[in-house]
Write a structure and sequence with these properties.
Layout (H helix, E strand, L loop, with lengths): L18 H38 L9 H6 L15
Protein name: Coiled coil protein 74 C-terminal domain-containing protein
Pfam families: CCDC74_C (PF14917)
Organism: Molossus molossus
Length: 86
Amino acid sequence: MGAPCLMNLPPHLRKPTSLQQCEVVIRQLWNANLLQAQELQHLKSLLEGTQRSSKAAPKEAGPNSPKDQDAIQLPKVPTKGVSKKW
């Protein structure tokens, strides 16, 4: 599999790119990658912080505990007139 023939490409892509244009795209991609890496590191640290705090905190039955979620009963929804497409 080689490079695509220029005639198979749309007209706006047929013009060969210059080295300067490639450098601009590479710089943009590098910057985007750097920002994503920083965001990923930030999210990892937040996740680690919440895991540490949940391990350190005593197990209390709060409003979001599984016991409370089991007690919540959802209303029954009538299935009359609903077609099953599965």
